[in-house]
Amino acid sequence: MKKPLHVLVTVIILASLTAAYSPKEIDTEEYVETFKQINEDVLKNGKAYETLGEACRTIGHRLTGSGNGKLAEEFAHTLLKSYEIRDVKYQPFQVEAWSRDTVSLSIAPRKSDNFIDVEVVSLAMTPVESNVTAEIVDVGNGLEPDFQAVKEKLSGKVAMVNIGLLPPIKGTRNLHRSEKTALAIQYGATGVIFVNTVKGNVLLTGTASVTGGLIAIPAVCISLESGDQIRKWMSEEPNLVSIINMRNFSKMIKARNVVATIKGDSKKYRNEKIIIGGHLDSWDLAHGALDNGIGSFSILDIARVFKALNLKPKRTIEFVMFMGEEEGLLGSKAMIERYTRNNSIDNVVFMMNLDMANNANGFNASGRTEMVDLMTKIGECIKKVDGNFKNTMINQAGLHSDHQSFMLEGIPTASPIGSIAPDALGCYHANCDKFDLVKKDEMLNTVRYTAMMLYGLANAPEIPAKKLDFYATRDFFIKQNLKKELELGRQWRWGAEE
Ligand SMILES: [Zn+2]
């Protein structure tokens, strides 16, 4: 009798000890205390909105490899230094990238010789030089059934395609402009005129290539209003001819990611590195205030608040401004290559990406289920500081921003989730992506909630999601239904078999 009782007592004592000192538990009291400080400081001293406004006014767009891009890199570097962060570095990279030169689209309605110029922009990855004269064929929304309907007459002609979906809709899901371009090429078109589906003379750019390489035919974008006009002319005259002339560059460019480091305060944890990154670069049609000024300037301010409050994260944090995201995740790919070369890639235990993150009210654990519990608990601490925070947690992996480069290495990633007003969203990649779309209080929400989550992760006893090995990463993408998309973008590294 004696012995079993003794064992039982020991078990009870051990169980209560592990409950009190479990290494997996976060210190919620300390978190709430620190989160209060973050909250107060950001609401009082937050500079994300103001510094983004200044960059939009004084620099303009932030196209990678351009003079403006260089100014933007320097702006971020200077700003981080002004926050008295000691370790701020450039990580230069050199890579071939596309940029626009000139483009024109002319149309002569009613069989006249009076060619009328239509306002137009080139999509990225279009040919270095292209001169096409051909009839226009209206392919509507440019979904597979729309192409099927005109397949007899499209060969050798220019396809006119809506970017969004306008009625009648012959399909369920819209395709990306690059996928519609691929279909146009497959059906023998010699050019593509994309009609924007946003009102107000809005022109849109972005890549027309599914693979990342240059495409063989010109692809341009016109406004919804120009599209209506051309369709009216076509109703009067079926064989309307268009002339597209374009020149672009595809050349080696130099750019620099900007990296600020706050070293981990704990000997045990400091080799583990958390990266919080977002792309500083933008397209060149406007100022990239939404894409991705709101994300990148939020990160700059998160770095500011960490330094201002002299926060002591256990793990090392790198605050990263990526360049070259728009041309194909160039900056984050360069960073992965650099860290692979210097054998430090395994130190990166987590990556938080902010791309158009606005008005955050929760987080996406990006398919890494192991993170949901910890992130929810940290979110509950945020809620204690600010009851307006919704702590919405989703868990779905997506592609096409800088986190993708880390995900391909098996590194767990996450992003804040929130909302952008639909009107503002219409300016995505467009000539109206300017500072007047940005809302100060919404940016403040992103900064303070993301700063709190970052602190929570950097000080957690453990990051529960571990780096996946080569084959586990493959299985992760299959499970997340991303294999096809990665194959399309030539990023699938695992061969044909599963
Ligand atoms: Zn973006």
> How is the main sheet built?
14 strands, mixed
Bound molecules: zinc ion
Shape: elongated
The stretches of 5 or more residues where confidence is low (pLDDT under 50) are: 1-5, 7-21
Question: What radius of gyration results from the CA coordinates?
Answer: 25 Å
Number of helices: 16
SSE pattern, N- to C-terminal = HHHHEEEEHHEHEEHEEHEHEEHEHEHHHH
**Named CATH architecture of the largest domain:** 3-Layer(aba) Sandwich
User: Oligomer, anyone?
Assistant: single chain
Total strands = 14
Question: Any idea how many domains?
Answer: 2
The CATH H-level homologous superfamily of the largest domain: Zn peptidases
Strand content: 15-25%
CATH class of the largest domain: Alpha Beta
| Euclidean distance between termini CA atoms | 57 Å
Structure class:
alpha/beta
The CATH topology of the largest domain is what? Aminopeptidase
Mean pLDDT: 94
Helix content: 25-40%
Summarize the structure.
This protein is an alpha/beta fold and 498 residues long.
Task: Note down, in words, how this protein is organized.
38% of the residues lie in helices and 21% in strands. With 498 residues, the chain is of the alpha/beta class. It has 2 domains: 27-97 and 251-467, Zn peptidases (Aminopeptidase); 109-239, Glucose Oxidase, domain 1, CATH 3.50.30. Strands 1, 2, 3, 4, 5, 6, 7, 8, 9, 10, 11, 12, 13 and 14 form a 14-stranded mixed beta sheet that branches. The protein starts with a helix and ends in a 10-residue tail after the last helix. Zinc ion binds next to helix 9.
